[in-house]
C-alpha cells in the first residue's frame, strides 16, 4: 500500500497540505487554506524519504494552526525546506 500525499483538515476547515513534484522533478509541499493563503516549500529530497514527509503533513494538518504545526513537525524530523511561494 502506498503513502498518502494529500491531506485535508479533519475538523471541516479548508486547510489542505500536499506533496507534489515540480517541473524539474523536485519535491514540494503545498499549503492552501481554502480562502486566500497558498504557500509552497521546496524540500531537499536527497535528505528525506516521502514516508517521513507524509507523516509530518498528516500530523500538521490535524492541528488548529497548520503552518506552525508543519514547521514543528519538519523540525522534529530534520527535514530541510525552502519557502518558494506565498
**Class by helix and strand content?**
alpha+beta
β-sheet strand percentage: 25-35%
Counted beta strands:
5
Report, as a whole number of angstroms, the end-to-end distance: 33 Å
Global mean pLDDT: 83
- Mass-distribution shape: globular
Strand-and-helix sequence, N→C?
Answer: EEEEHHE
Which strands sit side by side, in order, in the main sheet?
Answer: 1-2-3-4-5
Query: pLDDT under 50 segments (min length 5)?
Result: none
Helical region count?
2
Q: Can you tell me the number of structural domains?
A: 1
Write structural notes for this entry.
The chain is an alpha+beta fold. It has one domain. Helices cover 27% and strands 30% of the residues. It has two helices and five strands, in the order ββββααβ. Strands 1-2-3-4-5 form a five-stranded antiparallel beta sheet, covered by helices on one side. The longest helix is centred in the middle third of the chain and has 12 residues.
Give a nutshell description of this structure:
This protein is of the alpha+beta class and 86 residues long.
